[in-house]
Amino acid sequence: MTAGYELEDKVLLAVDCIIFGFDNGDLKVLLVKRDFEPEKGKWSLIGGFLKKTETLDDAARRILHTLTGMHDIYMEQLYTWSEVERDPAERTISTSFYAIIDIKQHDKELIEHHNAKWFSLSNAPKLIFDHDQMLNKAIMRLRRRTSISPIGFGLLPEKFTMKQLQKLYEAILDRKVDKRNFINKIKSMDILVKLDEKDMSSSTKGSYLFMFDQEKYDAKQTKDFYLKIS
Amino acid sequence: MTAGYELEDKVLLAVDCIIFGFDNGDLKVLLVKRDFEPEKGKWSLIGGFLKKTETLDDAARRILHTLTGMHDIYMEQLYTWSEVERDPAERTISTSFYAIIDIKQHDKELIEHHNAKWFSLSNAPKLIFDHDQMLNKAIMRLRRRTSISPIGFGLLPEKFTMKQLQKLYEAILDRKVDKRNFINKIKSMDILVKLDEKDMSSSTKGSYLFMFDQEKYDAKQTKDFYLKIS
DNA sequence: TCAAAAGTGTTTATAATACACCCATGG
DNA sequence: CCATGGGTGTATTATAAACACTTTTGA
Q1: What is the mean pLDDT of residues B89-113?
Q2: Which of A29, A31, A64, A206 sits at 20 to 30 Å (Cα–Cα) from A101?
């Protein structure tokens, strides 16, 4: 069997990862200082090149791990960018992926990787190539996702307060939501367990801690379940 | 300036187009008989390879035109497929695009291209590689899009009846919708103009013809406008 | 005159939104 | 005893869904 592919152009396929982090009410993005040309020394998304022996998802995981030490991050494919001059050095197509994680839970992994740094969305530096476009598209996608389906585990400590959860939504959606409506909505979703424990760190009264109920959450995920935050 | 890209793998980047067609209440997909190895003679999506000098969108348009004669079709990027063994002949990544068109308006262009053929979704043949997956993902995306935002121009004749529009939605969503709710909804969107003309071809009473109001439609498109069909 | 498709509104249910006061406690 | 953040419920509005009869006219 001979394939008729001999005359076709081959190109470099890059992967760029947009990692959003949530910490203390603030939505951030993880960037790295590029250590090779072109644009060496400038800030960029976490990127690298696909190898022939791996899928794009594999490549994204490998690159993320190499540049930041993080592992077990589920990333979702976002878009493939193909402007001819997007990388001035050579014709390169890039597929972008994104994920959102809890910064605290991954801080230790990151400490030794001094090239990677968290930036608040509001004061992120200008990025190389079309990475600003990628970031924007990722923000849009994240907002849409967030407003129609509950945010998963792993973004908050195992035990968290309603206030923390609300702050998370507010950070992603970039607007305030009504406390009572928010709580009612979350309750109606029935994916949280209220604990007897209280968090005393931010008030005299203390606020109840909650956990995600993995089973209920999974059950709902499979259906056409959605959440709309007022 | 030297780029540090020399050691990276290069791959073939393919483009596959999923063209949905609507004709007479039936939703179809356009397939071609492959005329090169591997899998020569089998049915596949409309595909080809990216050239170094074009974007993916350019490539999609070029390939669609080459294989079917169609032009001026706006396609939306769907997903990039990268399983290592997806094409057994050589490592190939593929970005898929989709569009939906009015079959009647493009029939003439297609007549001379005997390799391309419309198939109803319900009895499409098995496709090569991962093309069935691509098709499925495209159907899902099309349904979601359809249920949250009005379908554009170009899918129906310039003048059309409410019945035709309803059939279009029903074909895409693959379920019946209530006539009165549908009409009320469409009216509330305020993007159609009712003409004085009637279509007499399907009843003695005749049914009014409508046209899209391009300006109103564009205005709404820019907003967060959406439509939900009961 | 009747068959076949067109056209038309109202009621009900559900979901989204707006909104304000009391509670508990450590200092 | 009071300042601070925690906790709670209801009324209103908007949207979705269910539902059936009358009109027209060519054959």
Answers
A1: 87
A2: A206
Q: Which nucleotide is nearest to B198 (CA to C1')?
A: C6
pLDDT, chain A, mean: 89
A175 and A215: one domain? yes
pTM, to two decimals: 0.90
Can you tell me the distance from the alpha carbon of A131 to that of A86, in angstroms, rounded to the nearest whole number?
10
Contacts of B81 by beta carbon, 8 Å cutoff, 6+ apart: B93, B94, B95, B96, B130, B133, B134
Distance from CA of B12 to the nearest CA of A (A): 5
Let me know whether A134 and A182 are in one domain. Answer: no
Cβ <8 Å between A4 and B84 = no
Question: Between chains, do A80 and B82 touch, taking CB under 8 Å as contact?
Answer: no
Inter-residue contact B98 to B19 (CB < 8 Å) = yes
Interface contact B170, partner A, CB < 8 A? no
Clarify whether residues B18 and B95 are in a common domain. yes
Name the nucleotide with the smallest C1'–CA separation from B229: D16
Cα distance between residue B134 and residue A52, in whole Å:
21
Count of domains forming chain A: 2
Domain containing residue B130: CATH number: 3.90.79.10
